[in-house]
Design brief:
By secondary structure, the chain is an alpha/beta fold. It is 34% helix and 22% strand. The strands form five sheets. A five-stranded parallel β-sheet has the order 3-6-9-2-10, with helices on both faces. Strands 1-8-7 form a three-stranded mixed β-sheet. A two-stranded antiparallel ribbon has the order 4-5. The longest helix has 16 residues.
């Protein structure tokens, strides 16, 4: 209701494709281990119930990939936005960009010339407005990088299902009804401190937050193996090296699964073998993992490389730990689990 007790003028909806929407389909390369599948199913259930989902976790845990996968499962076009400190509300909703000038010359009577000119501002919808109108799935990646006031437009969208567009409709109340198929998925990294903002409680209260942490060993091994094409034993070696370095707590975050995939892909491309004594594999580990702790003191010497070499040697000498190999079917579903010994 407006101040005069009248119903607001709500823009009628049309089921049209958003110009910024992407037609996203589930990727064949997406590894659906039981742990990943369980996360995706939870998120999809919340979206079906009409609630926005928020994936929160440290870097390298696959939040964005998971968000896009869940969005693809909905079968609706996807609108992708990345948080930015320079964003204002107009960068989400839209604004006045440019002018349209028209001129009418009336010379019907040759001795009389009548001229009329008008200048109107041009309104351009931005991604949030387009997604709300077309019923897209909005994926707002690292939304805490945007200032809280820039995200205020989301409050009424997620709760009242109305988007305020006051400048676009100056002679009306300026509300647009959100398409019933519109859903939103957010991602954020609560551990990051540079370039992020504390979001308003009102927005967090509207989100269902799913904590995304580092996956278990079996899942990291399977993802590394599938993404790199290496053997199971080599994927196990890479994951164990990265996980041991992670457990040492040299940095606040990481190394993550992303480091495992990087090492695995480069090793496969270079023809190296993830095992002790392979100098190329050792060099790849030094380069990928070396930036994590530039001032590590070990046995009186500063350097991360010697520590990485020792971890590689330790993993090679470790007891033969059973590894569950997760077989993935043609449709990406985990269909079997078996135990295999490290070679």
């Amino acid at each position: 209701m407006n101040g005069n007790g009248e119903q607001p003028n709500v823009v009628a909806l049309m089921d049209i494709a958003s110009p910024t929407g992407m037609a996203v389909e589930p990727s064949e390369d997406f590894v659906q281990t039981p742990a990943v599948r369980q996360l995706a199913n939870r998120a999809l259930a919340y979206l079906k119930a009409g609630y926005p989902v928020h994936f929160s976790g440290p870097t390298g845990t696959g939040k964005t990939t998971l968000a896009l996968h869940v969005a693809a499962l909905r079968g609706r076009p996807v609108t992708l936005m990345h948080g930015d400190d320079e964003f204002s509300s107009s960068d989400l909703v839209g604004g006045e960009y440019g002018y349209r000038k028209s001129k009418l010359i009336d010379n019907f009577i040759h001795s009389v010339v009548k001229t009329e000119e008008s200048v109107n501002t041009l309104w351009t919808d931005n991604r949030l407005t387009l997604a709300c109108r077309a019923g897209d799935t909005l994926v707002y990646d690292e939304f805490t990088r945007s200032r809280p006031e820039a995200n205020n437009a989301l409050l009424s969208v997620l709760e009242e299902r109305l988007l305020s567009l006051p400048k676009r409709m100056p002679r009306a109340d300026g509300y647009m009804e959100v398409h019933p198929d519109f859903r939103a998925i957010f991602t954020s990294n609560p551990e990051e401190y540079a370039g992020v903002h504390r979001t308003q409680d009102a927005l967090l209260d509207r989100l269902i937050t799913i904590k995304v942490d580092y996956f278990n060993r079996d899942t990291e091994v399977e993802i590394t193996r599938m993404k790199s094409g290496l053997t199971l034993a080599e994927a196990v070696m890479i994951v164990d090296v990265v996980r041991q370095l992670r457990d040492m707590g040299l940095t606040k975050q990481g190394p993550s699964l992303r480091a495992c995939i990087m090492i695995g892909r480069i090793a496969a491309q270079q023809g190296a073998h993830a095992r002790r004594g392979d100098t190329v594999f050792s060099e790849i580990c030094h380069d990928v993992l070396g930036g994590l702790a530039p001032r590590v003191v070990h046995d009186g010497k500063k350097g991360i490389h010697s520590m990485i070499d020792e971890i590689i040697a330790k993993c090679a000498k470790d007891e033969r730990r059973p590894v569950r190999e997760i077989a993935v079917g043609d449709n990406g579903t985990a269909i079997a689990v078996k135990k295999e010994q490290r070679s």
